[in-house]
Write a structure and sequence with these properties.
Length: about 190
Amino acid sequence: SGMGLAFATTFGQEGMNVVMADIEEQALRSAAAQVEAVGANVLPVVTDVGDEASMDFLGEATRDAFGGAHLICLNAGVAAPTVPMENLTVNDWRWTLDVNLWGVIHGIRVFLSDLKSQDEGHIVITASVAGLTSYPWLGPYNASKHAATTIAETLHAELMETGSKVRVSCLTPGAVATNIGDAERNRPKELR
């Protein structure tokens, strides 16, 4: 939904093969059908971005279907309850960091070496304006988005230092009409 669906639709309209990943199977199927409707070849893969094995499977499925990737969008995001820090649980932190931080880490781990070996490609990391400042009652979200921002900056510096043609961008949007406010529906039971 939201930005991810907009990216996928735009890329499909440009003639790209599109791999779509989401933790919600029904939402993923519906979104994939929308992108297929613009004429794109779409591979939907149910994925938990915070899970190492799930992300490994996403990489394998992408390579099997399309021989590899050229543009990686690390865009999954959730927000824990907007409460003072002392009211946050360890599971609030774990869930937010699993998706917002580990999703980026796993995405880079799974896809970067392929991009570097073909010496071509681009990684887009969606952080947030919350990765540039710190808003009250958003501790886990702010921390995860600051981490995503510095990971993107560090990766950019490393790619430049080595002369790689692979590029990285970091998006830091403000408020966007997405379903992040309803993300709690996908929180794993063990992290509730």
